[in-house]
Each structure stands twice: as structure tokens, then as C-alpha cells.
Automatic annotation (TrEMBL):
<dbReference type="Pfam" id="PF25574">
    <property type="entry name" value="TPR_IMB1"/>
</dbReference>
<keyword id="KW-0653">Protein transport</keyword>
<dbReference type="GO" id="GO:0005635">
    <property type="term" value="C:nuclear envelope"/>
</dbReference>
<protein>
    <recommendedName>
        <fullName>Importin-95</fullName>
    </recommendedName>
</protein>
<keyword id="KW-0677">Repeat</keyword>
<dbReference type="InterPro" id="IPR011989">
    <property type="entry name" value="ARM-like"/>
</dbReference>
<dbReference type="InterPro" id="IPR040122">
    <property type="entry name" value="Importin_beta"/>
</dbReference>
<keyword id="KW-0813">Transport</keyword>
<dbReference type="InterPro" id="IPR001494">
    <property type="entry name" value="Importin-beta_N"/>
</dbReference>
<comment type="similarity">
    <text>Belongs to the importin beta family. Importin beta-1 subfamily.</text>
</comment>
<dbReference type="InterPro" id="IPR058584">
    <property type="entry name" value="IMB1_TNPO1-like_TPR"/>
</dbReference>
<dbReference type="Pfam" id="PF13513">
    <property type="entry name" value="HEAT_EZ"/>
</dbReference>
<dbReference type="GO" id="GO:0031267">
    <property type="term" value="F:small GTPase binding"/>
</dbReference>
<feature type="domain" description="Importin N-terminal">
    <location>
        <begin position="21"/>
        <end position="101"/>
    </location>
</feature>
<feature type="region of interest" description="Disordered">
    <location>
        <begin position="1"/>
        <end position="26"/>
    </location>
</feature>
<keyword id="KW-0539">Nucleus</keyword>
<keyword id="KW-0963">Cytoplasm</keyword>
């Protein structure tokens, strides 16, 4: 079969034909990669072929070069670079030639191929003349199709390749892109391709934005494009403005005053929703930036320092103009809009939410007249908009400003849960959920709680989306009252929710009896049950016990139904239900603690059956392992009888290196078991340490799992104390090597990773030192003290250090001093850097200061 026919068959409506053709292509790519790639390239450039087969060839070519998964991408890149130079050159030339195809779709897919090859070759110094060739196409050709496809290629390249790789050509790229986006360009399609390319290149033209003249020209072209006759170009231009605001906020004051303010307010009123959505998004972005700047200013104030960037308060200045437009957009809801569909009313609500956070109290007088005028309106659009407005401003203003308004509104909102309109009820339930979440102190138990809970429980028998919001509101009520009691009334034996507890949990359990999960309502009900269990006071414990019995019965029923599962949907539903049930069981175990003992046999029997039945479904396995971990923590030494039955399932999970989440949970289980059994876990330590050390050698295992493994060494050492001695030197070598990894200030991902890595190492060292403290094996730590303190020094010298790292560092110094109180490490503890760090308390949290004071006492004793 020739290439055209084979590619055409991959698009066949007949599933068997399509599957066979796809398998033949995959087989060809594996068995003879060079021939496969050249065949696709020839088909892509063949002007006599049907456009759909050329398109299929181009996509297959691109997919053979690029992958979302980084490991697979490395494989694809290496495979491409093994092709001989002539074959690679022929494919590259074919792709470039196809950019000029009279068929625009062929040119568009060729642009993707050019970008995919560039993403492999440019970072390793190959294809050095590519950018010059592309710029030549734009600057010297009158072929509109070629210009469009070339600009698309440049856009894709800018999107996929790191800015530093293209830094030397950024001026030329920007010039070509801006030239295509100018209002003088006769083709709107060229303008559109140029605007999209500009959007993708904005991150690496930072130097150009620093130069006022160039910045002015870029902004002029983009602002003019918002007025282009083509709506698509207008949308693209507003998208550029959104990204420019996010990237270059500090340089926008002049342009806001001169153009952007007016353009975006007018844009929000545009008759085409696509344009209006982007204009609203612009103001959402302004607010996001200013919320972040306010947060940074507060942090800087704590250190008596000026903020790095100051807010221009664009949102506050624009409030009188922007708010009326947003409120009007809120009334433009669609009766039959899909729940997940992003529309203007939803966008306006989101913007209003961010606006409230950005301008705080100033939002209240700007919206209250609208709420008062419309909350009882005949037209449901206006009623719903009024409730949405009220719900959207609850996060930002001072609670003292909002409290009288909420007190006044609550009875009305509770009554609106009986509104005749679905949308109004839905938004009312959401607003009540926001009040429960953000302003729990405004809910007076003796006045509001009974009617509020009655309305929300009644809502549980309504439409799925209303049920979801009622579950969320009930969950927030439990969480926030629970947090309030924990903070102000320690060991509360009863709660304002106690009289309603059994009724609420029973109603939520009834919601979960259904097989459907539309709008995620069943999952939301299980999440709410989990919250009520977690925050239950002593008087509600019998209800909690009855709840877990009901949940375990459901798990048993589900296990018995496993053989009846037919199809992927049934399997996904089964998995999701089991995960929900596991979450409730975990919350019960954590709440009851050792009181779960009478049910432990039944729970472990069920969980082991579930693990066996889950096969390789990692989400269910993760949840079952978390149940086991919480049970171990609750039972402590009482968990011992279950270990032998569980270990055969734990080890395969630890070796599932490609399943990051499962492997991470499995490592956590080792820590849970070690902490639970204490020195009794020494009999398992050898096997645990071997598998963990093997995992550290894996090239496949995610590096974040390796951080958890280092931390786990500390858990094991702390649990078994001196029995850890056989593994001490190996562990300390591993920790020292890991501690030598240095951050690159230009690589933010690496900086974050190194910060987390160091925290994991500090946790491991703390576990080892504490485990050996006050034992006959303590002297074995002496050779390792310098390398431990060297890491602590590095951590404390880091300007970006987190408070948790500071606390761990001081705690570890104190532990070492406590471990060697008779002067054995005196010279290390008297080093100047330690004295300096213990003099500085600036910006420390209270718990860290407490640790510092304790460590200082230990040092005094150890250096006396």
C-alpha cells in the first residue's frame, strides 16, 4: 500500500480500517525510521496529493518529533539526531518548501513541522540559518500564503523554545512580526498570523520593552490592531494586551493613561463576545498583578524594606468606569448555557471577584446600589446578577465592613433558595457557601444556623449543580466552625452544629446512594461527609462510628460487584466511588485514633481485597495505601499484625518508578509504619533501606520522590534509633552527595527543587541525629558533623530560605548540641556563622523563635 492510501486510511470512518492503518504506520516508524520520516515528508510536500492526506502526513511527522512527556521527548530528539545529515536536510527543505503551498492547510501543518524540528535542533546548535531563512520569506516575498505560514512557524518556535536560544535573533524576529501586524498590511490573515506570533514572542523581547522607543512602537501596533476590521485580529490583539500586562505591568502607566483604559472599557462592550471576553480578561489580569504586588508589599513591610515593584492602583482608578460595565455583563446570562462553558457573565463574575481583592473596601459602595436595586427584580437575569455580585465581593473588603451587609442579606438569601429559577438558586447556594467559607463569624448560631442548614439540606434534593453547591456550602460550614472551635475553644465537647450533625450526615449519605455523578455532586457529598467527620466533636462520635460502618458496607458491596463491570465508564465510576469511600474511612480513622481498633480487622481485610482488585489503577491504589498509612498512625504498635499481609503489595508499588504519585505514597507508608511500630520496625528496616536505596539509583523515578526517600531515611532512623547503625554511613554519604547539588539562579525550577531537596535532607539528618541521641551509638555521628553543619550553613545563607528550613536548621543545630553536651563538637558550634545566625531574629515566626531559643540553650551547655 502506498503512503497516500495508508495515511488516508488513518482518517477512515471505519474503526477497523483506521486502527489497522495506524498500527502499520507505528510499525513503520519503529522498523525503518529513516524511510518512514522521508515518506511522510514526501507526502507533505506533494502538491498532487489530497489535502487531508498531506495534513495527516504533517501531523504524523510532527508527532514523531515532539512529545509532551519529557522522557519521551528526549527519545524522539535522540532518534531524530541519529538520522544522517542528508535525510534530515531533505525533510527540513521539504517542510520549508511546503510553507509556500497554495493550500493554506498544508502550509499551516508544515509550520508545525518546522517548529518541531527547530525545537530539537536549535538548542544543540543545529540549523543555524533557520531564522534567517524564515525572516527572508517574510521580508522579501509577496506570497501571502508563504507569509502566513512563516509567521505561524515563528510563533510556534517562540512558543516552544527557551528565550535564551533565540536571544541573538530576537530583534529581527520582533521586527518581522511587528511588520506583519501593522495596520498598513493589506492581508488580515497575515496580520492575524503576525499578532499570534507576537503573542508567543512577548516573553523573550524583554530587552525591547526596556527601550522606550521600541516599546512605544510595539504598543502602538498592538493598540491599532484592537481596532482592526477583522474581529479575529482584534481578539488576538487583546490577547497580546493581556499577556503584556502580566509580563510588563511596571511599564504600563503611560499606556493605561493614553490608550489602554479606554480601549479595554470599550472592548468589554463589544458586540462580539470573543473580543469582550479578552477585554474583561485584561482587567482580571490587572487585578491579579495588583493583588500579588500588595502581597509582596506586605511581606517587604515585615522586613522594613521597600517593595521591589510598587502597585500603580490601576484597578482602583478604573473602578467607576469598569464596575458598571461588569455589572451589566453579569445580567447577560444564557438560560441554557452549559455548566462548563466560559461565557461573558462568568468572565465578568471572575473579574469582579479579583477586583474586590485588588481594591478591597472600595468595591462595596461601587456595587451595593446595583445589588439593592436588582435582588428582588422580576427578571431572573437581574436577580441572579445581584446575588452573583454579592457573592463575588466577599473576599477582599474588611470583614467588619461586610458583616452588617451579610447579616442583613442572610435571611433574604436563605429565602432565595426557594426561587423559581434554577440559575438564581444555583448562584444563591454558591453565595451561601462563600459566606460559610469566608465570613463564618457573621453567621449567628441562634439566629441563622437552623434556617441556613434547613435551606441547604432541602437543596440536596434539587438539580445536580445545586446539590453540588449545597454540599460545598455545608462542607465550608463544618470546616470553618471546626477551625474556629480549634482556635478559640480547645477540646470542645460540643459544637453549634451538634444538634444538626446526624441529620446533615444522613442527608449527605442519601445523596451518595445514586450511581450518577452529574456536576460532581456525589463526590461533593462525600467530601462534605469527610469534613463533618474530621471536625466532629465528642458528642457526635456515635454518628461517626455508624457512618464508617455504612461506608464499609458500601465498599464490600462494590467489591462484590467488581465482576459485573462492563466498559471503561463503569470502571472509572467504580474507581471514583472507591476513592471517595477511602477518603471518608481515612477521616474516620484520623478522628477516632486508637478508637478505630475494633474495626481494624474489617478495614484491613477490605483494603487488601481492594488492592488486589484494583490491579494497576494507581488512583485507587494511592487511596488504599493512604488508608493503611492512617491506620498505622492510629494503631501504632497495634498495627503489627497486619504488616506481613501488606508488605507483598507495598514492594511492587515502591518499584513502580514510572508512577510518580503511587511511588510517593508508598514511600510515605514506610515512614508511617516506622513511626507506628517504633523500634519494633527494626526487623523490616533492612528491606526498606534496600528498596529505597535502589530507588535513588533509578533514572526513571521522579526527582521529587527521591526527596521523599531522603526524608524517609530520617523516619526510619528516628523509629529504630541505634539499630540504624548498619545503614548510617551509606545514608550519610547519600545525604552529603545530595546536599552538594547547587541551584542555578537562572533556572527557577532547579532553585525550587534544590530548596525542597535541602529541606528533605535536613529532615533526614534530624531523624538520624534524634534517633542516635542519648544512645551508645551517638559517637558514630561525630565524623559526619562537619558535613551536616556545612549544609545547615548553606541553607541559612540562602536569601530565599523558607521559614520551615530556618526552623529545621536551628532545630538540627540544637539536636547536635544536645547529642554531644560534653564539648565533643565545641569548635564547630563556636564558628562565627552560627553565632551570627543566632543573633538574627528578623521576620521569624513564633514557632521558629521558640526553636532558636531552645537550640541556643543547648549550644551554651555543649560549649561551656
Amino acid at each position: 500500500m502506498n503512503a497516500s492510501a495508508l495515511l488516508a486510511n488513518t482518517l477512515s470512518p471505519d474503526a477497523t480500517t483506521r486502527q489497522t492503518a495506524t498500527q502499520q504506520l507505528e510499525s513503520a516508524s519503529r522498523e525503518n525510521y529513516p524511510v518512514y520520516m522521508l515518506m511522510l515528508s514526501d507526502e507533505l510536500r506533494n502538491e498532487n496529493s489530497q489535502i487531508h492526506t498531506r495534513n495527516a502526513a504533517g501531523l504524523a511527522l510532527k508527532n514523531a518529533l515532539s512529545a509532551r512527556d519529557s522522557t519521551r521527548q528526549d527519545e524522539y530528539s535522540a532518534r531524530w539526531m541519529t538520522l544522517d545529515v542528508d535525510a534530515r536536510q531533505k525533510i527540513k527543505e521539504g517542510s520549508l518548501l511546503t510553507l509556500a503551498s497554495p493550500q493554506p492547510r498544508a502550509g499551516a501543518v508544515a509550520a508545525q513541522v518546522v517548529s518541531a524540528i527547530a525545537a530539537v535542533e536549535l538548542p544543540v546548535g543545529q540549523w543555524p540559518d533557520l531564522v534567517e531563512i524564515l525572516l527572508g520569506f517574510i521580508n522579501t516575498s509577496d506570497d501571502t500564503n508563504l507569509k502566513i505560514a512563516t509567521l505561524q512557524a515563528i510563533g510556534y518556535i517562540c512558543e516552544t523554545i527557551k528565550p535564551e536560544v533565540l536571544a541573538l535573533r530576537s530583534n529581527e524576529i520582533l521586527t518581522a512580526v511587528i511588520h506583519g501586524a501593522r495596520k498598513e498590511e493589506p492581508s488580515s490573515e497575515v496580520q492575524l498570523a503576525a499578532v499570534h506570533a507576537l503573542f508567543n514572542s512577548l516573553e523573550f523581547v524583554r530587552d525591547n520593552f526596556d527601550r522606550e522607543g521600541e516599546r512605544n512602537y510595539i504598543m502602538q501596533v498592538v493598540c491599532e490592531a484592537t481596532q482592526n476590521p477583522s474581529v479575529s485580529v482584534q481578539v488576538g490583539a487583546f490577547e497580546c494586551l493581556v499577556k503584556i500586562m502580566a509580563l510588563y505591568y511596571d511599564k504600563m502607566a503611560f499606556y493605561m493613561e493614553q490608550a489602554l483604559f479606554g480601549l479595554t472599557v470599550m472592548g468589554m462592550k463589544h458586540s462580539d463576545e470573543r473580543v469582550a471576553l479578552q477585554a474583561v480578561e485584561f482587567w482580571t489580569t490587572v487585578c491579579e498583578e495588583e493583588i500579588e504586588l500588595a502581597h509582596e508589599a506586605r511581606e517587604a513591610a515585615e522586613y522594613d524594606e521597600p517593595p521591589e515593584l510598587e502597585s500603580k492602583h490601576f484597578a482602583k482608578v478604573a473602578l467607576p468606569e469598569v464596575i458598571p460595565v461588569l455589572l451589566n455583563l453579569l445580567t447577560q446570562q444564557e438560560e441554557d448555557a452549559d455548566e462548563g462553558e466560559w461565557n461573558l457573565a462568568m468572565s465578568a463574575g471572575t473579574c469582579l471577584n479579583y477586583m474586590a481583592q485588588a481594591v478591597a473596601d472600595a468595591i462595596v459602595p461601587a456595587v451595593i446600589p446595583f445589588i439593592e436595586a436588582h435582588i428582588k427584580a422580576q427578571d431572573w437575569h437581574h436577580r441572579e446578577a445581584a446575588v452573583m455580585t454579592f457573592g463575588s465581593i466577599l473576599d477582599g473588603p474588611d470583614p467588619q465592613v461586610l458583616t452588617p451587609l451579610v447579616n442583613q442579606a442572610l435571611p433574604l438569601l436563605i429565602g432565595m433558595m426557594n426561587d423559581e429559577n434554577l440559575h438564581v438558586k444555583d448562584t444563591t447556594a454558591w453565595t451561601l457557601g462563600r459566606i460559610c467559607d469566608l465570613l463564618i463569624v457573621t453567621i449567628k448560631p441562634d439566629v441563622h444556623l437552623h434556617p441556613l442548614i434547613s435551606a441547604l439540606v432541602n437543596g440536596l434534593s434539587d438539580r445536580p449543580r445545586i446539590v453540588t453547591n449545597c454540599c460545598w456550602a455545608l462542607m465550608n460550614l463544618a470546616d470553618q466552625i471546626g477551625i474556629y472551635l480549634d482556635e478559640y475553644i480547645t477540646s470542645a465537647s460540643e459544637s453549634p452544629l451538634s444538634p444538626y450533625f446526624e441529620g446533615i450526615v444522613s442527608a449527605l449519605l442519601r445523596v451518595t446512594e445514586t450511581t450518577a455523578n452529574e456536576s460532581n455532586f456525589r463526590t461533593s457529598a462525600y467530601e462534605a461527609i469527610t469534613s463533618y467527620v474530621s471536625h466532629s466533636t465528642t458528642d457526635c462520635i456515635p454518628v461517626v462510628q455508624n457512618t464508617v460502618i455504612a461506608i464499609l458496607q458500601r465498599m464490600e458491596q462494590l467489591l462484590n460487584m467488581q465482576n459485573q463491570i462492563v466498559g471503561v465508564d463503569d470502571r472509572n465510576n467504580w474507581n471514583e466511588l472507591q476513592s471517595n469511600l477511602c477518603s471518608v474511612v481515612i477521616s474516620v480513622i484520623r478522628r477516632l485514633g486508637g478508637g478505630i481498633q475494633p474495626m481494624a480487622d474489617r478495614i484491613m481485610t477490605l483494603i487488601l481485597q481492594l488492592i488486589q482488585g484494583a490491579g494497576k489503577t494507581s488512583t485507587v491504589l494511592e487511596d488504599t495505601f493512604l488508608v493503611v498509612g492512617s491506620l498505622a498512625a492510629a494503631l501504632e504498635a497495634g498495627f503489627a499484625p497486619y504488616i506481613q499481609a501488606f508488605l507483598p503489595f507495598l514492594y511492587p508499588a515502591l518499584k513502580a518508578h514510572e508512577d510518580t504519585q503511587l511511588c510517593m505514597v508508598a514511600v510515605g507508608i514506610i515512614g508511617d509504619i516506622s513511626r507506628a511500630l517504633g523500634d519494633q520496625s527494626a526487623q523490616y528496616a533492612g528491606a526498606f533501606m534496600n528498596v529505597l536505596l535502589e530507588n535513588l539509583q533509578s533514572n526513571v523515578l521522579n526527582r521529587n520522590v527521591k526527596i521523599s526517600i531522603l526524608s524517609c531515611f530520617g523516619d526510619i532512623a528516628l523509629a529504630i534509633g541505634p539499630a540504624f547503625d548498619p545503614y548510617l554511613n551509606t545514608t550519610m554519604d547519600v545525604l552529603r552527595q545530595a546536599g552538594s547539588v547547587q541551584p542555578n539562579p537562572l533556572d527557577f525550577d532547579l532553585m525550587d527543587y534544590v530548596a525542597q531537596l535541602r529541606e528533605g535532607i535536613l529532615e533526614a539528618y534530624t531523624g538520624v541525629v534524634t534517633g542516635f541521641k542519648n544512645t551508645e551509638k551517638a559517637p558514630a555521628l561525630l565524623p559526619h558533623v562537619p558535613s551536616i553543619l556545612e549544609l545547615v550553613h548553606q541553607c541559612l545563607a540562602d536569601e530565599e530560605r523558607s521559614d520551615s528550613v530556618v526552623k529545621l536548621s536551628f532545630g538540627l543545630i540544637g539536636d547536635l548540641a544536645d547529642c554531644f553536651p560534653n564539648g565533643q563538637i565545641k569548635e564547630h558550634l563556636l564558628e562565627e556563622w552560627i553565632a551570627h545566625e543566632f543573633r538574627s531574629k528578623r521576620g521569624m515566626q513564633q514557632e521558629t523563635k521558640k526553636t532558636l531559643r531552645w537550640a541556643r540553650e543547648m549550644i551554651k551547655r555543649a560549649t561551656a
